[in-house]
Amino acid sequence: MKKIVCTTVAMMSLGFWTTLAVAQTADTEVAQAQNNEQITNEEAQELVAAANSSKINIQTRPEIMGLWGMEIPDNKRCVEYYNFSGENNMVIKSDQEWSIGQYQYQAPSNRSEYLPTLIFQIKYDNNQTDCSGVKQDQTGEIQQFFVKWVNPTQIQFCGNQRGEQCFATLNKQLP
């Protein structure tokens, strides 16, 4: 008798976490030896059909997903939070202000020369005061940053693709 075994593998590739679910067949020869049975032709066909119908399920997610915090230089008591979640949704919380929107994270084909691009659009802003003391409705605004990875838990927002003119440092809070 054979048994179908499902294996899950996670790996980092081109700026995306990829999860592979791979189905494979495994012999249970011990059970066969104990029972001294042979697999019938019908059982073999069922096993082949099951193995052929197994699918590889690939799920990708941007490496930027998670909760990030940015300390404001002029206001050390206030942290601005960026939560990049699934389906490209995001929430920004800064003091009394909170905004929701959508983001797109694009990893370049040549990471040694160019930084990933982060573009987001604010869909709703509650028009309250943020950590910088500014009260401004940002609904509809589109912003573009280049993301410089300092290490796996720290990024910087930069003004160009080469990682120059970086103006904000964010630290990973939660995956």
TrEMBL record:
Residues in the signal sequence: 1-23
Keyword Signal: yes
Superkingdom, natural source: Bacteria
Keywords: Signal
Name of this chain's protein: Uncharacterized protein
Organism annotation: Acinetobacter marinus
